[in-house]
Amino acid sequence: MILGRLPAPPYDRAQVTPGVVHIGVGGFHRAHQALFHDRLLERGETAWGLCGMSVLDADRRIQDVLEAQDGLYTLVEKHADGEWDGRVIGSIVAHRFAPADREAAIEVLAGERTKIVSLTITEGGYDLDGAPTTAYELVTEALRRRRDRDEAPFTIMSCDNLEGNGQRARRAFTTFAAREDAGLGDWIGEHVAFPCSMVDRITPVTTDDDRREIEARFGVDDAWPVVCEPFIQWVLEDSFADGRPPYDDVGVQVVDDVEPYELMKLRLLNASHQALAYFGHLAGYALVHDAAQDPAFRRFLLGYMEQEATPTLPPVPGVDVADYRTTLIERFSNPGVRDTIPRLAAESSDRIPKWLLPVIRRRLEDGGEIRRSAAVVASWARYAEGVDEHGEPIEVVDRLAGRLGELARDPDPDAFIRDRELFGELAEDERFAAAYRDARASLRERGARATLESLA
User: Fold this and answer.
1) Exposed, middle or buried, 334 (CB in 10 Å: 0-12/13-18/19+)?
2) Can you say whether residue 24 is alpha, beta or left, with left for phi > 0 and alpha for psi between -120 and 50 degrees?
3) For position 132, what pLDDT does the model report?
4) Residues 311, 317, 322, 325: is their CA dihedral positive or negative?
């Protein structure tokens, strides 16, 4: 990697020990957790470097890039005014490609210097019946070896966008281990720490235009740079099995209870992304900031956040939720990020049930407003039909795309929401079903924009 006009990391990487192994070295990890560890290394915390680990054959490209660039890469923050801040990140000091050498990958995990194993394996990665289990196989075997060697277990730290991600990780890993060895499952449940976390930074897919612009602005030749927004947040439960870095010294909010923060993020930011995604595509938008700058979309999003999502939230210590809502609209509207509508619309069946449906259920329980939330579900169903308002095909990226398309196109207006795997008992609630049917009929008869304006 040619650094151009950007300085190299200001620490001796040869003196850094990888105390954390991270599984799932994608753009988000490199824009988020790896930056916090870069800050730690700047402060002389040399025991807390990162070892990236890729577990799927499809991850070979990131392995090749990291190997060719000695783990270095460029992180660029794009500001709304057109300014770009570039930084070379050096915290990934090792990388293992598990498909090429499974035994070596396990021994890295089982090694005594590994204190934490962190994960970004996507929301669907915690479904043992539908997701690849390679990560579980490697991690549980490493924990078996730690147990048999009478060594302390490492902490498993989920960094995925899931409510209660630590508890979900605990259930997934103990269940997986117990399928082969009940004793190991019990040992993991008793001795391994699974802290919950809330992570936040909008990180769109890096494009060829990004690479060219980074080279032009900074003189950097980087095969896989990462671009992101300036905003970053990490709230982390202080629960670790064998020590942790001084995260609180580098901007991480280390707290006793993450739940208020994660609910705020999932129900305001993530669910609002879903509101933007389907209505945005149907209204003809390809980029998130274009939709977010549209006054009708802004009114709709603020109405959803203020009147439907916020009343379901507990108090969030140290956060002005009204200011947080306003900041979200500003973040969505940042033209520098150039986040895409298709990215937000991907894998909806993993996202809507976890981010939006809890809002609907709570509002139904307390008699609150649900019109906008139900309309987002209706826009998802309309999108899932696979054809837009001009008769052009929609590429629906979802593990359940075939089934969702059939349900969305069914003449029965409630067929989509009767999928119990996704909606549970919601279809039986007439208030929700009626609001959904009204929005769905409006989308078909009047189109996305008119429907949105009527709700805004």
Assistant:
1) buried
2) left
3) 73
4) negative
pLDDT for residue 126: 86
The CB density around residue 310, as the number of other CB atoms within 10 Å, is: 17
Q: What is the pLDDT of residue 441?
A: 97
Output the CA–CA distances (angstroms, integers) from residue 31 to 34, 87, 107, 165, 425, in the order listed.
Answer: 7, 11, 27, 20, 38
Residue type, 268: L
Taking alpha carbons only, the member of 141, 144, 179, 139 closest to residue 156 is 139
Please tell me what DSSP assigns to residue 221.
Answer: B
Would you say the pTM of this structure is higher than 0.70? yes
Radius of gyration of the chain from its Cα atoms, rounded to whole angstroms: 22
Structure tokens at 335: 């033209």
Cα(178)–Cα(181) distance, integer angstroms: 5
Alpha helices of 305-390 — where are they, by DSSP H? 321-332, 341-345, 348-355, 357-366, 371-384
Strands, E assignment, 122-195? 155-158
DSSP labels, 175-190: HHHHHH-HHHHHHHHH
Please give the Cα distance from 247 to 300 (Å, whole number).
Answer: 37
**Which residues have C-beta within 8 Å of that of residue 101, sequence separation ≥ 6?**
none
Strands 197-200 and 233-237: antiparallel
Evaluate whether 34 touches 26 at the Cβ level (below 8 Å): no
Rounded Cα–Cα distance for residues 378 and 433 (Å): 10
Helix (H) or strand (E) holding 92: strand 92-97
Distance CA 368, CA 361 (A): 10
List residues bridging with 340 in a β-sheet: 287
With a cut of 70, which residues of the chain have pLDDT below it? 130-131
pLDDT confidence of residue 129? 76
- Confidence at residue 133, expressed as pLDDT on a 0 to 100 scale: 85
- Token pair, residue 295, equals 């006054």
Dist CA 199 CA 228 (whole Å)? 14
The Cβ of residue 180 has, within 10 Å, a number of other Cβ atoms equal to 12
If you ran DSSP here, which 8-state letter would residue 242 be given?
S
Residue 152 burial (10 A CB sphere; 0-12, 13-18, 19+): middle
- Our CA dihedral for 357, 233, 255, 19, rounded to 10 degrees, sits at 110
